[in-house]
Amino acid sequence: MTTSACDSPGLLTVDAVIAQLLAQAIAPTARIRLPLSAASGRVLAEDIVAPHDVPAWANSAMDGYAVAAADLQTPMTSLAIDGRLAAGDGSGSALTPSHARRIFTGAPLPAGADTVVAQEHCLREGDRISIPITTLAANVRAQGEELARGSLVLSAGKRLSANEIALLASLGQAKVSVFQPLRIGLLSTGNELREAGSALAAGQIANANGPGLAALFRGWGFDVINSGIVPDQPAALRSAFRALSSQCDVLISSGGVSVGEEDHLKAVVSELGELALWRVAIQPGKPLAFGRVGQRPWLGLPGNPTSALITAMIIAKPYLRRLQGQQHVQEAAYTLSAEFSWPKAKPRRQYLRASLTNSGGVTLHAQQGSAMLSPACASDGLAMIEAGRSLVAGEPVPFLPYASLLS
Ligand SMILES: Nc1nc2c(c(=O)[nH]1)N[C@H]1C(S)=C(S)[C@@H](COP(=O)(O)OP(=O)(O)OC[C@H]3O[C@@H](n4cnc5c(N)ncnc54)[C@H](O)[C@@H]3O)O[C@H]1N2
Ligand code: MOO
Question: Which chain positions lie within coiled-coil regions (predicted)?
């Protein structure tokens, strides 16, 4: 990548804005205890310590024969079988010296055995079994090999997915303490907006940001109180903001934050609380604003639908995660090879709709307009190009997949 002069006077960088938001995010305190069946997507509010070794006792990883490896000094040693152990059985008596015990996957290893030989490598003849030379401890899951009793398994602040739910269940934990879900109060501002399904008069359009942002926030595990559409009128905005701020933890609006006379939000927020920052060196999404209404934090996303969604994914998400008590807040980008060039450096950091190629690279969607929603649906994620940078094909480019941005 080559760097050229980057001037974006008055604009804060994306990283500075995220850092500023994270610095003043207040971690949650309200917790609830939920059964595992209701805990997916919630954020853990307690550290989880292994209540016992995992596995709790040595057991077989294969269907076969439990033996003492020292008995297998010559190829195809013949041993008498002294019994049978299936999963769910207790470990039973100790293995008779110089014998083998029939054993199944998950069954406890009997005392005296240290190795399991898979049945397909053995030759059964009545009550005897011929067993090849084998490696000591093969096919045995040793007690505590995964986790030692008392070790830290999951830390508070981890968002629970199927992986963590399965692990908690395996440790015998039926309920878990999680943070109360963050309540986001959502407003779509604009005189031109009507809800999808309504008849549209000349100049009116359907509200895309309300349903889109609500789906995004719910997908991240938050509760959404959707107040719908508010016209671009100071009195209507004031009363909608006041009403919603008493019901939610954070207010998020779309539209009305740019520079036109119809963009009243910044003035209304300044009057009801404080406008703390405005305008970010990001494309799309420059007019993003942040402040508070009373004591409630407020994020003002731009009205252009793709600007609203992308600023929510890039700037709002780490902040909301932190408000929810999540430990890991920043999205990791993959560095891939650009299969496009970006000859002209831009003054704002670019988040471009892009797709993965079969050769492991990234191409750009032909349409990048911030009012366009279809390019996002026909791409795999966002390629990021720094402000002031140009790029030639073959150079590395950071790529953020929708698979992680949306979850
Ligand atoms: N003179 C300037 N004009 C604009 C600038 C600028 O710097 N100087 N910035 C542009 C950029 S960048 C963006 S992004 C937009 C954002 O403006 P606002 O946040 O004030 O948004 P609106 O003006 O209310 O709407 C912009 C656009 O998006 C449509 N919209 C709004 N809400 C919705 C919704 N809920 N669903 C679907 N579409 C929505 C709206 O109809 C407008 O077309 O400002 C540029 N202008
Ligand atoms: O930032 Mo605007 O989002 O460039 O359209």
Answer: none
Which tens digits make up the pLDDT trace of 77-100? 999 999 999 999 988 899 999 999
Where a domain ends, among 141, 168, 196?
141
- Tell me the CA–centroid distance for residue 254 and ligand 1, in Å: 9
Threshold 0.90, pTM exceeds? yes
**CATH at residue 155:** 3.90.105.10
Please give the residue range of the domain that contains residue 226: 2-29+181-323
- The type of residue at 321 is R
Asked if the structure places residue 329 within a domain, the reply is no
Binding-site residues, ligand 1, Cβ < 6 A: 188, 190, 192-193, 205, 207-210, 254-259, 263, 284, 286-287, 302-305, 307, 370-371
CA 308 to ligand 1 center in whole angstroms: 9
Residue 326: band (very low, low, confident or very high) from pLDDT cuts 50, 70, 90: very high
Atom of ligand 2 nearest to the CA of 287: 1
| 159-167 long-range Cβ contacts below 8 angstroms, 24+ apart | 159/41, 159/42, 159/43, 159/44, 159/221, 159/321, 159/326, 159/328, 160/39, 160/40, 160/41, 160/42, 160/43, 160/44, 161/40, 161/41, 162/40, 164/44, 165/36, 165/39, 165/40
> What value does the mean pLDDT take over residues 201-222?
98
Q: Which atom of ligand 1 is nearest to the CA of 254?
A: 32
Top mutation candidate among 12, 17, 306, 307 for ligand 2, by most atoms within 8 Å of CB: 307
Q: Which residue among 207, 258, 278 has the greatest number of ligand 1 atoms within 8 angstroms of its CB, and so is best to mutate?
A: 258
Domain count, the chain: 4
Residues 112 and 231 in one domain: no
In this prediction, residue 5 carries a pLDDT of: 38
Q: Which atom of ligand 2 is nearest to the CA of 310?
A: 3
User: Is residue 120 domain-shared with residue 171, that is, in the same domain?
Assistant: no
Q: pLDDT tens, 241-272?
A: 999 999 999 999 999 998 877 788 999 999 99
User: What pLDDT shows up at residue 92?
Assistant: 87
**Domain final residue pick, 293, 323, 353:** 323
- Please check whether residue 328 lies inside any domain of the structure: no
Q: Are 225 and 272 in contact (CB under 8 A)?
A: no
